[in-house]
Description:
CATH superfamily of the domain at 201-287: Tetratricopeptide repeat domain
Radius of gyration: 38 Å
Distance between the termini: 128 Å
Low-confidence stretches: 97-101
Structural class: mainly alpha
Largest sheet: none
Number of helices: 12
Mean pLDDT: 82
Order of helices and strands: HHHHHHHHHHHH
Amino acid sequence: MNTETQKSTHTNFHKEVKKPDGFQVTMEAVTKNQAKANRMIWMILGAIALIGGIVALVQSQSHKKELLAASDLFQAEKALNAELKDLAVKLVPAGVAVDEENADDQEDSAKTAKKDAKKGAKVPPPKPKAPAGVEAIAFKKFDVDTELKKSIEGLKKVAETHRSTRAGFQASLAVGDIYLEHASAETAAVWYAKAAETAPSNLDKALALSNLGYAYDNAGKNKEAIDAFEKSVSLNQETVKGDSLLALIRLYKSTEQLDKRKTTIDRVAVELPNTEYAREAEGLRNE
Length: 287
């Protein structure tokens, strides 16, 4: 084939090859764009699924953590109740103090026995008096770390090991309550402060701060008590605020902050109208 023939053939080939028309070009572009969009959608869906999986895993782990903490707290509280019962028997001789429910039953049984004896009926021997209940040692001072060694250590462990859980918060409060009631107000304050730091809600924090205020008050630390009560009130939790405001009225008087005392009495009347708190605050106005 000569050169002229090759050129002619090459030219005819290009003439015979059809170029894509405008519609086809447009459709190809749409198809490519749709493919890109589909890939993007799948990438987004994959990312959402991944995030959802991570969130579910975190929530599952958090739930397991809460359950473990609650279980540990239950065991510590169970040990506390057992030790308190044993301690009540140890510190209060049988018959000296009994729980109120048994006391009523025993008194009724004694009266019935006397009546039956007068009638000549056979009278069964009297039942032994119940040992002292836990309430018999309420506010009784003793060495908490020795007498409640197992349970107090268990509660402290829950508080420290599960700090970020509700059970950990409750354990800190429980330790504070035990020390305040039976041992040292200053030690109680340490644990109430820990509870305030880890409180899972504003209501819980307000409660912990209020307890902290009472602990400082019992320890004779008026300045610290006022600070704790003021922080509790600032959280504006009605179920706690009333008691904290009344405590502040009393503390402002003892520290001779009379203007603050008057302002607080007025505040109770405005923020807690028609309540026992308002009536009590008004009764303190002229003292």
